[in-house]
Amino acid sequence: MSFIATLGKIAKKTYTYFTENETGKSIANVAILGYINRKTSQSIAKQSDPQPGTRITQGTGAGTENRVGTGPEINYYTVQFDPDTNSRIPVVYGDAFIGGKVIDARLSADKCKTMWFCLALSEQTGIQLSDSSASEITVKECYYNNQKLVFGSDGITVVRGVTPEGENNELLNGQISVYPFSGDSETPTFIGTKTVGNSANAYDLFPEWDTTKQMNDLVFVLIKMDYYPVGDIRGLGNWTFRVENTMDKPGDCLYDYMTNDRYGGSIPVEEIDA
Fold it and tell me: Which of 191, 194, 144 is nearest to 169 (CA)?
């Protein structure tokens, strides 16, 4: 068995993310017009619909099971789908629970037992006026199919899920790995309060990527999943992340959003009375 057996199942199982689960309808909390206890205003992060042209193609080269390790070399298929030009990546200030945008996905050629995919979570924000420091965005918590993920000593590999009722799901043990990045492909970060975790470049991890895949100015995660029907790991699933931005003061947020020429209003600094 594998993640998918036919092209139709790809669209139905892998990309139900876009239409049939809470991640596809997630709310991005954006602190722009004030905050209370670091809680933010809410704005809907519009998700893209799956396109009818979803397809699989053979990769042009070989990826490996662990690009920075010693695992055996495995070919990967590229999962392709037509881009949605209306899709948007949110800007997050303060704390927020958000989903993500699927921007790349690969399936291993060994009966598609392993899936890698990349989720863009948010834009990387700028400098905080209040202390002249660069804002920092970290992934504090990860949720898969409404279960909070608990990571092992390596800070990357899931050892169990915890349901909303507080029950442990040990079936996820060793089946999922999460690699967060903050700003570009060469800035790995840790999950939550972990002091260990991802230390590799994104293009050294993700199959078929190279140094041209810089992912500049994005906060994103790479996720590796092994097909495991006993643990109900059959497709992309429902993902939610708690993201924290050190930029949370109203003045900093307003100034950043008004002046930023990548995701904001591009208002000239000289026209703002700061």
Answer: 144
